[in-house]
Amino acid sequence: MPAVATLIAVAVALFQYRNSKKEEFRKRFWEEQYALYSKAVSAAALIATAKDFHSIAAAREEFWRLYWGALCMVEDREVEAAMVDFGEVLAEAEKAGDISDRPATGNARTKFRDAAYYLAHSMRESLSRTWQPVDLGKLSGLRPVE
Question: Which pLDDT score, from 0 to 100, does residue 101 have?
């Protein structure tokens, strides 16, 4: 009997250890994903709101560095698509050597701003799915337990 109790205790300890390591990895992944998403969306926002093309050289370099590098390890398909969309708009502007869709006012929509907005929202949804993969919208129809 003591041997069975010892085996059960060891099995429970191993199970708890495995689950805690899994949660620890998940948390570290989410934190890294958040940090990289923040860098990418900040670069996109700087580009999308720039007054002139040459003042955003560092932001453009940062965007492309993330695009071709570390972000690929943590992005989901939706974020990947949004990065590609923004990258296409940026590549077009870089080829022309100018940001041709500058708005007259600060709140006007442009290709850059729409692409940056889509990128930010896709990243928000991705972070939500990574941290809490349950779709809370599906639970909204449930009645509370009385």
Answer: 59
Closest to 37 (Cα-Cα) out of 11, 63, 5: 63
Q: How many CA atoms lie within 13 A of 37 on its CB side?
A: 25
Q: Rounded to whole angstroms, how far apart are CA atoms 15 and 20?
A: 9
Let me know: does 37 contact 125? Beta carbons within 8 Å: no
- Write the CB contacts of 103 (distance below 8 Å, at least 6 apart in sequence): 109, 110, 113
Top-confidence residue, 1 or 62: 62
DSSP H/E element including 22 = helix 2-48
Please report, rounded to a whole number, the percentage of residues in the chain having pLDDT higher than 90.
45
Q: What is the pLDDT of residue 9?
A: 73
Residue 33 in tokens: 């994903």
Residue indicated by tokens 């590098």: 69
pLDDT, residue 104, reads 56
Q: How far apart are CA 132 and CA 14, in angstroms?
A: 24
85 and 122 Cβ atoms separated by less than 8 Å: no
Q: Provide the 8-state DSSP code for 132.
A: -
